[in-house]
Specification:
18% strand, five-stranded mixed beta sheet, single chain, alpha/beta, binds alpha-D-glucopyranuronic acid
Length: 328
């Protein structure tokens, strides 16, 4: 006969074995790193994607999101992904240019006519799709794009013409295109990680930066830069990536679900982004006292035109840029 103690021990080990085999067989947790706040629209869209993946895989695939560069800045996250120590990351085309030159096709200033042109290009299998898939063999692949608006200059003074940039140290992302753009506009470019920018602006390490307006409020840059000059020089998408090692761990069915959820979240993000930008601009003006300055874009367009011409003739990105132009 079983003693009571023995019966309880057996019951507990049975439960443990059942739950262990459940968690080992059934659950894959993917860690996703990014450098925005959890109130940022891209974080919210990625959470929507993660929720869809969890639901559609019956909890078998769980994506856990780590915001605010907790797992490293964008560059560090990419390196962790390539070495297979991190599953997923959100970066952007500017930063990715150093890992895959084809992303540089998106970094040509004044490339997109409007939002319709932009989405058409991102969703075109021959352009956006081709670029996402192009890093196969480099340790990661792209899953989808997220609208990150257009980028303009902000500083403690209005920047109405390229002449206003002369002698200014402008923080840029670590990308060859960003450096070239600043050179053509007459400024001196300082590449820095996004998370270091607030202090750099505050301490005068840089005089200006460029980004979409959410950086003013959600990264609090509006506290240290009171003029946002709307020259809208680039429209650079954010990009969701997964390591090839983590991708290979998923079953073909799970891969399909993850890809579909990523695509859905890209499209629901479109409206979310527009609404969030409007709200953040209002907040920047009303609660932070940031002045939004209208500028005549033509002198900026003229200053960087050589980049477009050069991109069209480039052996690596030329064909893509031609296709982007043709999709106008
Ligand atoms: C955008 C983008 C960030 C990026 C940042 C930057 O805001 O969403 O992921 O890091 O630009 O300028 O570095």
């Amino acid at each position: 006969m079983l003693t009571k103690k023995k019966a309880i021990t057996l019951a507990i080990s049975g439960i443990l074995a059942a739950s262990m085999s459940f968690s080992v067989a059934a659950k894959t947790t993917l860690k996703l790193s990014h450098n925005n706040d959890k109130t940022h629209p891209v974080h919210i869209s990625m959470q929507n994607m993660a929720d869809e993946v969890k639901k559609e895989t019956n909890g078998e695939v769980v994506i856990r999101i780590y915001p605010n560069s907790q797992l490293g800045n964008q560059r560090e996250s990419m390196e962790l992904i390539q070495s297979g120590s991190l599953d997923m990351a959100k970066s952007n085309a500017s930063e990715l240019e150093a890992f895959q030159p084809l992303y540089g096709a998106f970094n040509v200033p004044y490339l997109f006519k409007d939002s319709e042109h932009y989405y058409k290009v991102l969703r075109d299998p021959e352009i956006g799709g081709k670029i996402l898939a192009s890093t196969e063999g480099k340790g990661f692949i792209g899953l989808t794009y997220y609208d990150a608006g257009s980028r303009s200059f902000y500083a403690q003074k209005p920047i109405k013409t390229p002449a206003d940039l002369k002698g200014l140290k402008v923080r840029v992302q670590p990308s060859p295109s960003a450096l070239e753009m600043m050179k053509l506009m007459g400024a001196s470019a300082t590449p820095l990680a996004f998370g270091e920018l607030y202090t750099a602006l505050q301490q005068g390490v840089v005089d200006a930066a460029e980004n979409n307006p959410t950086a003013l409020t959600l990264m609090r840059h509006g506290e240290v830069a009171k003029f946002y000059s709307e020259d809208e020089h680039t429209i650079i998408p954010d990009v969701l990536l997964i390591s090839e090692k983590s991708w290979a761990k998923l079953t073909p069915e799970q891969q399909k679900i993850v890809k579909a959820a990523a695509d859905h979240s890209m499209m629901t993000h479109k409206d979310l982004w527009a609404k969030a930008t409007e709200e953040e601009v209002k907040k920047a003006k009303e609660t932070m006292g940031v002045e939004f300055v209208k500028v005549d874009k033509q002198p900026f367009v003229d200053a960087v035109k050589p980049m477009h011409d050069k991109a069209l003739a480039d052996p690596v990105i030329g064909d893509l840029v031609k296709k982007i132009d043709a999709a106008r």
